[in-house]
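Chapter review: from sequence to fold.
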Amino acid sequence: MSKVAVEGDEGFVLHGYPYMETSLIVEAFTRRHGRVACVAKGARRPKSNLRGTLQAFQPLALAWFGKSELKTLKTAEPSRIGPQLTGQALLSGFYVNELLLKLSHRDDAHESLYEAYEEAIHKLQTLSLPGAMSGDAGTPLSPARLIAPVLRQFERRLLAELGYGLMLEEDSRHQAIVPGQRYAYVLEHGPMPVAATRAGQGAALELQGKSLLDIARDDYRDPVSAAEAKQLMRHVLNHHLNGAELHTRQLIRELQQT
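The token string follows.
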């Protein structure tokens, strides 16, 4: 049986774990082939060229071969070296990776989603640079407030690319969202004016019309819009995760309690 080979694609490592005695299984997210699983043979050997290369959040030029779902990695070379993620930016990077692992399908290409991921990682890298989270007078800024817009933008684009796009500028009756009105966001239906929400709709999330419009524009300067955007994204993502737990969320909660 002939091998199906991919000689070059851009990609990032989402996750890797030991396989056999000296190898790794690597989940990569690539521009032209989507999420790909590869065996990196011998990658854990001390002298392996791959040992220090298969790092998360660094763009790679990848080549692989194989017809089965689990490919064999041929080469992985750095495309460029970006700043290392640190602190909350690092945890946020792991969160973004976990979303892709849990919600995307293997061998399903989404070039626009790849670009959204690449943009999110670049912004998180920028926020990891010395002084990036300080104001003009050197006053420290809230990491959560700076990072939250990056995550909300990626979450929105992820949902849209996977076919779960949010209704943000029209309600369920195709009427324009009114900034001063409150809406109940009903899964599978979208926003409904609170007064028109039918009994039995369950615990629909209520939020302001302005928040919906701000999310559509990726504008999170308003603290109310930022808070309600986080609630909405969590509400919708939890639904599509079908009960699957995000380990990064649990880790962040534990760190906040220490």
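Two observations follow directly from the output. The longest strand covers residues 5-19. The radius of gyration is 21 Å.
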